[in-house]
Design brief:
The complex is a heterodimer of chains A (314) and B (423). By secondary structure, chain A is an alpha/beta fold. In chain A, 38% of the residues lie in helices and 14% in strands. Chain A has 13 helices and nine strands. In chain A, the strands form two sheets. Chain A has a five-stranded parallel beta sheet. In chain A, β3, α4 and β4 form a beta-alpha-beta unit. In chain A, α2 crosses α12. The longest helix of chain A has 19 residues. The C terminus of chain A is likely disordered. Chain B has 423 residues and is α/β, with parallel strands linked by helices. In chain B, strands 1, 2, 3, 4, 5, 16, 17 and 18 form an eight-stranded mixed beta sheet that branches. A five-stranded parallel beta sheet of chain B has the order 9-10-13-14-15. A three-stranded parallel beta sheet of chain B has the order 6-7-8. In chain B, α2 runs parallel beside α3, α7 packs parallel to α8 and α8 runs parallel beside α10. In chain B, 59% of the residues are buried. The model of chain B has no long low-confidence stretch (mean pLDDT 97). The chains are: A alpha/beta (314), B alpha/beta (423). At the A-B interface, α4 of A face α6 of B.
Chain lengths: 314, 423
């Protein structure tokens, strides 16, 4: 099957078949990351620009490693070091980069819709969204789905609880759309100040409290609480947040005994997740990071112009 | 000088007139309506098949002059107005410098008189520099020609200052035009709060931000006895608040913009910056309520909130794009959609575009009665045309209606009997 997309702007435009193909491709690539020589020539001669307008350690490193292991030339640009500080518009920045003929631009931007904006204006490059505002973070959702699938053998029929700041999280939107498209049940819970209107129309089951969301869940996904970003009016204190929406060994017992514990990172230990749980036997948090590289290799490969048949021969 | 407009269907809500008849304008004023008029030596305008109505009056326009002439100026803005059938516009004070003093008001009026294609009625600012701190010199501004006061775009945050504005303006029998928004509830919102904002990951502006401010200003008007005009009403709640206030005799009038009775927040999908305005496009229920308000008299006027912006200010990420769209050249066909859908009678639509706004802000226009100024629009309600934004007469092309097929075209616009626009 040919991958039908030039860009990866969000999970929203991927079908269940697209998602399965990406996850299968990633599974094939995963093994490369444990070899002695962690490099294949697949994208040799391709140029990838990682254009990051927001701070990121995990995602940027992951995309960079993914590109390098496929032998692409990867260049990293962060906003503070770029002409953005000189007042250049996003369009001009992108047009100038495009003039240097990159093949893929991986972009993170604080404005929702920024990668969509670029995709409309750049005729040649493929755009991969590495997180746009509070909108989507497709590679995160894909690595989450890959991790879940590895452990559970499937996505359909699973009960996934996502807990935290649902309003401001791009991880939630991408996971919610992707998981429900793959047949999972997604429950969301968070304080009333962090539940956006209409989220149920995206397929979420909105729970009144964390306990209800955890009840019998196969997967528990905790979100980072970001007080610095969301302002001071949403929560009285981190202490109270931890009390009602933090995952700990006690409330984790409400979930299925073999429930997976996940977190997109970076974690606030002792706030949304206790160290006992984060480092406990049910945690797959570092596997998420590991799978992140494989998923991003798959994305670069699929939009980089190769067909899926070649993956099969790897 | 005489002009005879012959054979048109004259609709003038001010006189309750709807008849096929002739209209004679002499020396800039309506001289007679009827048939077999003595029109010797008059210039003839064949109006058969056309509606002849009082020139439209848009009481909410940003002409951007002085200061932002790269977006629009008094000449281009009034030319766009004349093409839309508007013979009078009220321009908002958020120019640079702000229209908070007599010299700016006089500049606007002089330029409009000498170079413009429509009457321009300046709106002065409520507070100096739109800063929300001290009142503008309202008496002086009125003398210079302002017809009301507004800090449009920047709501007066202090309730006490709004109280004083209503009280002080009452001294001069002048209306205060409220941009009703409770800023602390708007926060960093960039579109209507609701499902679409949730899906797009954009920060929302809840309806309660508008309703809370509308309620406050109505109460202050009631308390002070001042005259309040609520600009660009976009929510069901605000319509209802105004309806109830009118019923108990509060001196309040209100307007709505064509985009708020035509589009919902669904138009934002695709991060369309030409669907970004303030107040934002709302839900279907809000659109329905605004339409109802226009029909039942709760809302007095249709005003476009014509807000020209340069392409560079719209061709950016959604959250940093400037608010507003141009509206003068699309208002009539959008209003006629309401007529076609049975929401408004044709006469009511014309009233909302002429007599209604004139009454709201005490503008001496909006009627074709004998003796009134001969500001007239002739339009073909059935003519279909496709909007090409690049062909707008406004300097700016920021419209969400680009490519729409619109029904209803202005054929001629007359300002005091003189043709200023001709299709």
């Amino acid at each position: 099957m040919e991958f039908p997309h030039k860009h990866i702007l969000g999970i929203d435009h991927l079908s269940a078949a697209d998602i399965s193909l990406i996850l299968d491709t990633a599974a094939n690539f995963k093994e490369i990351n444990t070899r002695d020589i962690k490099k294949v020539p697949t994208l040799r001669g391709k140029t990838i620009i990682n254009l990051f307008f927001e701070a990121s350690t995990r995602t940027r490193t992951s995309f960079e490693i993914a590109g390098k292991r496929l032998s692409a030339d990867t260049i990293n640009i962060s906003a503070s070091a770029s002409s953005v500080v000189k007042g250049e518009t996003l369009e001009d920045t992108a047009m100038n980069l495009e003039a240097m003929h990159p093949d893929i631009i991986v972009m993170r931007h604080g404005a929702s819709g920024a990668p969509h904006y670029l995709a409309k204006r750049l005729p040649n490059s493929s755009i991969i969204n590495a997180g746009d505002g509070a909108h989507e973070h497709p590679s995160q959702a894909l690595l989450d789905m890959m991790t879940i699938r590895e452990h559970k053998g499937k996505l359909a029929g699973l009960k996934v609880a996502i807990i935290g700041d649902i309003t401001h999280s791009r991880v939630v939107r991408s996971n919610l759309i992707g998981l429900t498209r793959m047949g999972a049940e997604v429950r969301v819970a968070g304080p009333g100040t962090m539940l956006p209107p209409g989220i149920e129309r995206l397929g979420a089951k909105v729970c009144t409290g964390m306990e209800q969301a955890l009840e019998g869940a196969d997967v528990v996904m905790m979100l980072r609480i970001q007080l610095e970003r969301q302002g001071k009016t949403l929560l009285p204190s981190l202490r109270e947040y931890a009390k009602y929406f933090g995952l700990n060994p006690v409330n984790l017992k409400l979930a299925s005994p073999d429930a997976l514990v996940m977190h997109p990172g970076p974690m606030n230990r002792g706030v949304e997740i206790s160290s006992f749980v984060a480092d406990g036997p049910q945690s797959v948090i570092l596997e998420q990071v590991e799978n992140g590289v494989a998923v991003r290799m798959a994305l670069l490969y699929l939009v980089g112009g190769a067909s899926a048949d070649e993956t099969a021969h790897k | 000088m005489k002009t005879l407009i012959k054979g048109g269907r004259i609709i003038d809500p001010a006189q309750g007139l709807d008849a096929i008849s002739d209209l004679l304008i002499e020396n800039g004023k309506v001289a007679a309506i009827g048939s077999a008029l003595d029109a010797q030596g008059a210039a003839l305008i064949d109006a058969r098949g056309l509606i002849v109505a009082p020139g439209f009056v848009d009481i909410h326009v940003h002409l951007r002059d002085p200061g932002y002439e790269y977006k629009e100026d008094i000449v281009s803005g009034t030319r766009a107005a004349s093409r839309g059938g508007f013979t009078s516009v009220a321009c908002m004070p958020n120019s640079n410098p702000v229209n908070d003093n007599k010299s700016v008001t006089l500049y606007i009026r002089r330029k409009a008189r000498e170079e413009g294609f429509a009457n321009v009625y300046p709106v002065g600012s409520i507070t100096k520099g739109l800063k929300g701190e001290t009142l503008s010199e309202m008496g002086d501004l009125k003398e210079a020609g302002c017809i009301g006061f507004s800090d449009d775009g920047r709501p007066v945050a202090s309730a006490e200052l709004m109280r004083r504005a209503l009280e002080y303006a009452r001294t001069f029998e002048m209306p205060i035009i409220s941009h009703a928004e409770e800023l602390s509830l708007v926060g960093e919102g960039v579109m209507n709060e609701g499902f679409v904002a949730t899906e797009l990951g954009l920060k929302g502006i809840p309806w309660v931000a508008e309703d809370a401010a509308t309620a406050r200003d109505i109460m202050l008007a009631e308390f002070t006895g001042g005259r309040l005009h609520v600009a660009h009403v976009s929510t069901a709640g605000s319509v209802e608040l105004i309806r109830r206030a009118k019923a108990r005799g509060v001196r309040v009038t209100a307007e709505a913009a064509p985009h708020h009775f035509t589009l919902t927040d669904e138009a934002v999908r695709g991060y369309n910056t030409n669907a970004k305005m303030n107040p934002p496009l709302r839900s279907a229920a809000d659109v329905e309520a605004v339409r109802k308000g226009l029909a039942d008299g709760t809302l007095d006027a249709i005003a476009t909130d014509h807000a020209p912006h340069h392409l560079d200010e719209k061709n950016v990420e959604f959250n940093i794009a400037l608010n507003g769209i141009v509206g003068l050249e699309t208002a009539l066909p959008l209003c006629l959609r309401l007529v076609e859908e049975g929401v408004l009678s044709l006469s009511r639509a014309i009233e909302l575009l002429s007599l209604g706004p004139c009454k709201a802000l005490s503008i001496p226009r909006g009627s074709l009665a004998v003796g009134e100024v001969g500001d007239v629009v002739l339009f073909d309600p059935a003519a279909e045309w496709k909007l090409d934004a690049q062909k707008l007469l406004s300097k700016s092309k920021n419209t969400p209606f680009d490519g729409w097929t619109l029904k209803g075209a202005v054929k001629k616009t007359l300002l005091a009997g003189k043709v200023v626009f001709e299709d």
